[in-house]
Please model this.
Amino acid sequence: MRVAQKTIYDMTRFRLGMITDDLNNATTLVSTGKRLNKAEDDPIGYTQVLSLKSNVSYLEQIKRNTGTGKTWLNAGETALSSVQDIITQAKTVALSMSGGNADSSVRSAAAEQIRGYVLQMESLANTRVQGQYIFSGTKTDTQAFALDSQQIPTTATYSGNDVAYSIMTAKDTTIEVGHDGDAVFSNLFSSMISLYSDLKNNNPAGIGNAIDNLDTDFDTITSTISGIGAKGVRINTKEKIIADLSLRYTENQAELEDADIVEAITQLKAAELAYQAALSSSAKLMQMSLVDFL
Model:
């Protein structure tokens, strides 16, 4: 049976199209280094790769959270360590001014020293990380404390809330990295302002009471710093887990997705040869006018 010229042309064009697709696929495989570039390459494998990519993306977000958490914890620890130094210095002043040898003028001068400490505490209580107040609870855009007066302070008003700012470290797990500033600082401000007032008013009994109050305040700050250390350990542990999981997911993704580059190049060379051969063969078959059949 005689085969029509148009049939020969259609078969040749179809075969050339198939070989061209093979060449394009081989080229893509070599250029990307990936054997899975679209769903039809391997529907099951492609779905698994998408799932692994989602897991890695989630871990990267958790890693960013833990990085932020460590920054907050470090800032809090630094600020509170400075507060401890202030308490120690204030207690030293109170001890030296509690005896009968100090007169009103000496105590008045000491009061100015304590006022300076109060102003430093206000600054430390309003510590910020990337513009966010770490001692304002979850009201991180609100300044935590404000003195009623810089010259003669009598009160320090807290404007945050009592819910510590937290970061997410797992689907249902959070770690507090901020602080309820009221619980940390309010009693201390009261003690320091009272000491300032007692010194200014030459009140030895009040100065003596301030020493005990400052001891209690120091213990509160110490406990808060210890809590920061414990949270830091938890975050460091979480970071190690994240690193291990991320590496595992990445390796699994590579096993599913990455091509054997040597094999891919071999396939590309074979596809190029097949394509050249098909072009040569087609040219011979199509020497007759193909325009008639278009």
Observations:
- The longest helix spans residues 43-97.
- The chain has a mean pLDDT of 82.
- The radius of gyration is 37 Å.
